[in-house]
Structures are given as C-alpha cells and as structure tokens.
Design goal:
Length: 253
C-alpha cells in the first residue's frame, strides 16, 4: 500500500465529506486527488470503502435528527420510489461490469464536470423547460435514468438527480430531499462492492482519521447545504464545476 501522508489523508477525508451530497461529484474529486498525489489514476479501495461507510452513517444521522417523521417511516413511505429509481442504475452497472468498462480519466472528469454544470444551469435558468408527469413513480424512474450519468466520473450523482427533479418541476428542497433518499442505496452498494473486492482489510490510524473527518464534514455539509440552499441557490456549484473542468483541461492538455 502506498505510504500516504497525514496531509493527504486529511484532504481526502474533507473532500469526500464535503462533496458527497452536493452537486459537484465526490468520486471525481477523489480521483483528481489520487491522480495528483500518486501521478496515476489508481483507486485506494480501502480508503474509498471507509469514506463511503462514514458518509452513509452521516446521512442516516442527519435524516434521523432532522426529519419530522421517524427514520423508519421515512424509508418505508419512499421505499418503492427509491427501488424504482435504482432499476436503471442496476441495469447500467451490470452492463459495465460484464463489459469491464473503465471511464476513469482526468479528461473525462473535466468534460463531465462542465457538461453536468451546463445541464444544471439550463434547468435553473429556463424555468419554462419542465416535464410534468402523472406519477411520482415515473419521476423517480426518470431521475434514476439521470443518475446513470454518474457512472462517468465527474458527472455527480447528486447533481444529476437534482437536475432531474428540477426538470420534473420539483422545488429545490424537494429535489435535494429526493436526491438524498436516492443516495442511500447507491452509497450502500458502493460500500459493499468495494468491501467485496478487498483482499485484505488492514486497520490503521489512517482509516480512523478518514472515518471521523469524513463523518463530521459530511454531516456539517448536509446541515449547511440544505439550510442555506434557498439563499445561495445552485449557481455557485455551476460556476465551480465549469472552472474545475476548464482548469483540468488546461492543466492536462
């Protein structure tokens, strides 16, 4: 295993926690950090697994502490909708697994970051472009199709889902809430998938740091993101993603 410095571990944990639930792509950012630090496009599955597990616990804690309904009631009421939203992702994931496809590259992250930002920009600026369906089940299935874009590094799972729900004429808060509900099984599957691929799990201080820092930063990000989204809107994320993609294209051209 590569000998990682504490500064890298701290940066890795903070970035994962901050970017997991906002529309900027956590996986894309982690890939950038790994690439710059190791001068390669490898992934540390042990660190990813720990970070995903910590993010999942942060989400559960947030929903438990900040929902008027009980956590059990929240998931039971929305179980069918979330299950429907997972159908496209499961099908796409299976195809990618069978064909052994790998889209990981910094150029890919750059392009998808910009394209995802433009998609979100179009939806928030042109409010006449809206799709109204007759059923929440259809809404969640369409959002599930958008969610498949996140198989391309840098597209942002949350960003794709939020874009879909805004397009489906949902308010900001509802779009974010639906995106969070859809994130639960995705993060769980990512955690289980990475854990399954690990040949050996070695416990060290780095994993503890990643777990603690990721949990705290993810939970605080959820609090501030949802609390202040009406005040700040989605434009800062659009601008950031376009700048990030442009810098990557210039730097790695």
């Amino acid at each position: 295993m590569t000998d990682y410095s504490y500064s890298f571990i701290l940066l890795y944990s903070l970035v994962q926690g901050i970017t997991e639930f906002i529309p900027v792509s956590s996986s894309g950012h982690l890939n950038i950090i790994e690439s710059l630090y190791n001068d390669s496009q490898s992934r540390n599955l042990l660190y990813e697994t720990t970070a995903h597990f910590s993010s999942l616990l942060a989400l559960i804690t947030y929903l438990y502490k900040n929902n008027s309904d009980s956590l059990k009631k929240l998931f039971s009421n929305n179980f069918k909708l979330v299950a429907i939203s997972m159908i496209p992702a499961l099908a796409m994931g299976l195809i990618i697994k069978i064909l052994n496809l790998n889209f990981l590259s910094l150029h890919m992250i750059a392009y998808t970051s910009i394209i995802g930002a433009v998609m979100l920009l179009i939806v928030i600026k042109f409010k006449k472009i809206r799709i109204k369906t007759r059923s929440l089940k259809i809404d969640f299935f369409i959002a599930g199709l958008f969610q498949c874009l996140a198989f391309l590094p840098g597209f942002s799972r949350s960003g794709s889902c939020i874009t879909a729900f805004l397009l489906l004429d949902k308010k900001r808060e509802q779009a974010i809430k639906n995106s969070l509900l859809m994130s639960f099984p995705i993060i769980l599957i990512s955690f289980l998938s990475n854990a399954k691929e690990l040949n050996l799990i070695s416990l060290d201080i780095n994993l503890l740091i990643i777990f603690i820092i990721t949990f705290i930063s993810a939970y605080l990000t959820l609090l501030f993101f949802i609390k202040y989204i009406n005040r700040i809107g989605f434009m800062p994320y659009v601008i950031y993603r376009i700048l990030l993609g442009s810098i990557l294209l210039i730097y790695f051209s």
